[in-house]
Amino acid sequence: NVGKSSIVNALLGDERMIVSDVPGTTRDAVDSRLRWHGQEVLLIDTAGLRRKTKVKRRLEVYSNLRSLSAIDNANVVLMTLDASRSFAEQDLRIAKHAHEEGKGVIIVVNKWDLVEKDNSSTGEYVLRVREALPFLGYAPILFISALTHQRIHTVLETAFRVYEKRGQKLSTSMLNDFLETAVARRPPRHTRGGTARFYYVTQTGSAPPSFALFVNNPEWVHESYRRYLINQFRKNFDFEGSTVRLNLRARTRRERKVS
User: pTM for this one?
Assistant: First the structure.
């Protein structure tokens, strides 16, 4: 039991959730509402996903479906880990689902008070998380204790920051100024077919932030360069905790060139 219900209780300030050391105590997604700095928050405490080989009873099947549905309907997912235990297969499944659905993701390491620590403990744990969940490199990692309320305030603070930033709507002129700077800082390399030339970029959606980048030939944009541009988007516009979707589209030579 990673302590999801304990975290919800700490945020609510009461004991609404059943708290137990037994894994699987929460069988369903439970909704709770609170107001934080004048804004309404809906907290959904979900049952953890079970391995498919263990999902036999109807109750467990229902719990898994409800957990996945809760993730689908969430703005921000708090990926909760137990600092005193190793990662489970279910952790990876939940993380992948949240990432693939384009949700805001925060990794919350609970029970940090139970870990014997030295000056390198936090850094070592961060490294373990990044190695286990490489596709969530954009997700902030919080170290808390729901039991002692250690840094519990950072959970909603970070969740609202992620929520607000990933919902940004950026002007095309701002985006193209950014693109020009990013390409000038690191021009694309020549490939076997030719050299990519970028014309313009426009936002096609938010939450998650999504962009269309028009280029002479998308096949000439190496995946490493695409990752570079995505990282520049995240750094420049503070898309912490959110995947950035970048769709490369072909454009003719007549289009205005940025590089």
Answer: 0.83
